[in-house]
Amino acid sequence: MLILAICALLLFGYLGLQDYSDAKSTGNVKALRLQKRGIFISIGVIVSSLLLVLLILPHILGAEFALSSDRKTVLGIAIGFSLLISFIWYTYLSWLDIYEKEKVGTLILTFILAAASSFLVFPIGDLVHPHTYSLDGTFWNDLQYCIVNIGMIEEFVKILPFLIILKLTKAINESYDYILHGGICALGFAAVENSLYLRNTDLFVLNGRAMISTVSHMFDTGIICYSMAMARYKKKNVLVAMLYGYLLASVAHGFYDFWLISEGYQYPMVTIAFFLASIHIFTIMKNNLINISEYFDDTKRVEADRNKFRLFNLLLFIMFGGYVAIYLINGSGAANAFIKDGLLYNSYILVYLAVSFGSINVVNGYVAPIKLGTRFFLPLINRHPNYLGLPFVLKPTTREPLDEVKLLVDLLPLKGHFSKRLVVNQNFNWYYFTPAQYDESLRELGVQIIICPAKFDRNLKDQKDHIVHVGFIKNEEDINEVELDLNQVKGLPSMLMQYQPTQ
């Protein structure tokens, strides 16, 4: 675990260094300032927490100070952290709501309804449990118990506030609103549940509740809401989609719990592996709903790199804030054990969440398939920058052009801009290149020039020459497609492209 934690932190540091290098090469003063501020916050959270626990508080309160006997204080701290966890994840979800921002009042109402509805778990459970299963340590019995008695009940309770808001208000009027409001419902439920777990464990499960359990609740409810949003987008039966999503969410929820609570099959690493896989899927779901937004505006951007570091710092604050709180509750020994365990076992999850949830690329109209690769144990690293709307000039290479492209080469250098983003052969780093002055003779090559940077990790905005792949869409009927196969594109030899900002 130590090696895994070190590798995760090194990966995050490497990605940060890449972002810093890109910002510096392009002269992006704002990006450099934000990155320096993020580093300062990270160091400040860690250093101030260590100083408080190791030096300042022991000197003020005494080495043996602890509040463990004051249960009301523990409950108050637990509620405070539970609300903070929900607020952090609401903040993240709101960062992705870039086109048509939701009213805060409606989201607060959704949260309150969800927190209140969480208490329905108990009476519904009393009605269901006598007629279903109880845990006995066998595989199929315990799995069915987790799916029916836990998953189906909790997912039903979580989706109720969402359906009330959907039916009685006009707040959910954009595709992404489905996952946003569904996420808020999950956060309201999780706030109540987290308060109970944190109180009963004197905050020792804080990292797990903040980084794993709460996110899993959002993912499970997100399955239902995503199913409904896609049915609405594809003009299919939303009710059928909701029921399908509900069953799938219940199975996912039950499967997650099974490996934690079945006495015969307690393998927490299976739950962790399932959780990591769900993060990849959840990221695709969010990205797809942003892509099909009814309020799409190509001038607005998801600040993916910035969100990655902001989320990292917020979760880091939870970890080290818990470190200080546990010192106040149970003393320095418990606090040091908590932070050691957190750094050892949760650093990887911390980086995994920050990097994966920062991997959002907007391609208007593109719905990526929900599939899981073989590398789900690694963060979803997606560093494709978005150059939509930016001006570039296409240039020839020094090599002698082939006969088939001399027509295009004779027109170079060709000024234009990236006017649309599209996906070619599952690579979503392609763009329509619209020349400032279009020569009709180009139609001999195809109906639309498309461009793809040869190396996606190079920042094209540094005003240097970069190698790009060039092609033409062959047929007029494909011009409005957002996803193309290679047989729909005429590939040409690579050329050079340079960013030329308007003066």
Give your account of this protein's structure:
- It comes from Owenweeksia hongkongensis (strain DSM 17368 / CIP 108786 / JCM 12287 / NRRL B-23963 / UST20020801).
- This is Putative membrane protein.
- The chain has 503 residues and is of the alpha+beta class.
- Among the domains are: 66-204 and 221-266, no CATH class; 391-499, no CATH class.
- It has helices at residues 2-26, 29-61, 71-95, 104-117, 121-128, 139-168, 175-200, 206-233, 238-261, 268-291, 304-330, 332-345, 347-357, 406-409, and strands at residues 391-395, 414-424, 427-435, 448-453, 466-473, 483-484, 489-499.
- The protein has a 6-stranded antiparallel barrel.
Total helices: the number is: 14
Number of strands: 7
The N- and C-terminal alpha carbons lie at a distance of 52 Å
Q: What spatial form do the alpha-carbon principal axes imply?
A: globular
The computed structural class is: alpha+beta
Order of helices and strands: HHHHHHHHHHHHHEHEEEEEE
Bin the helical content: 55-70%
Rg from Cα = 26 Å
**Major beta-sheet overview:** 6 strands, antiparallel, barrel
Uncertain regions spanning at least 5 consecutive residues: none
On the 0-100 scale, what is the average pLDDT? 90
Strand order of the largest sheet: 1-2-3-4-5-7
Strand portion: 5-15%
